[in-house]
Amino acid sequence: MCGRYAQSADMRELMEQFEVTGSSPTQSLPANWNIAPTNPIYIVRADSQSHEKNALATVSWGLIGPWLSEINQAKASQSRAINARSESIHEKPTFRAAFKSTRCLIPAQGYYEWATALGRFAPKQPFFISARDEKQLSIAGIWSSWRAPGGVIIESASIITQEAQGELAEIHSRMPVFMPRDSWKQWLDPENNEIEYLRSLMVVESPASIVIAHPVSSAVNSVARNEKELTARIELGEPETLF
Prior knowledge:
The chain is an alpha+beta fold. The protein contains five helices and twelve strands. Strands 3, 4, 5, 6, 9, 10 and 11 form a seven-stranded mixed β-sheet that branches. The longest helix is centred in the first third of the chain and has 7 residues, at 11-17. It starts with a strand and ends in a 28-residue tail after the last strand.
């Protein structure tokens, strides 16, 4: 799974990398080196006026189920829907409608993952995983718009995950689905709604080759911590590096 990630880029940087020529927020979100469920996050999606353009938006992390009717219940549900499994996203009631018509990209400076007992690292050891080319990771996601009885609208999003591959599987059994640049247009286009085709877009060759991981301090365990130093490498001894 992906339960925390970092994003410190100014929205102008994101607009440049993700070729945003459509709508965008009026101001940048503050840098957050420890984004937690329900926090505001950036997404890139098709512009509502022209699907040929990319738009940048801010939403809440954790997709709200379309059947929920009370705002407190809806907000409480978000922490349970921050991730959607690529293998079943087209079937799950919370995610299937968004997968079919409102997909997005979720830019990330990098994400945190905690080692499980299945790998070769001490259980619960946190790692920071970022792009080898030092650019923003482009993570596949879905978003939706939910209206409360009083008329309040909450836009929310989930990260799509897949089975971990290669050396990333030494840390955790799951990893985000990284969406390559040449698939952005097809992925974001709401007119593309053929399920098997959409599932094929989530099959990426050697996704583990896109990222590099290093161990970090357990300080990231606290959601109250939010500083760049959370991403700093620490030494573990043997093994002291990961690919």
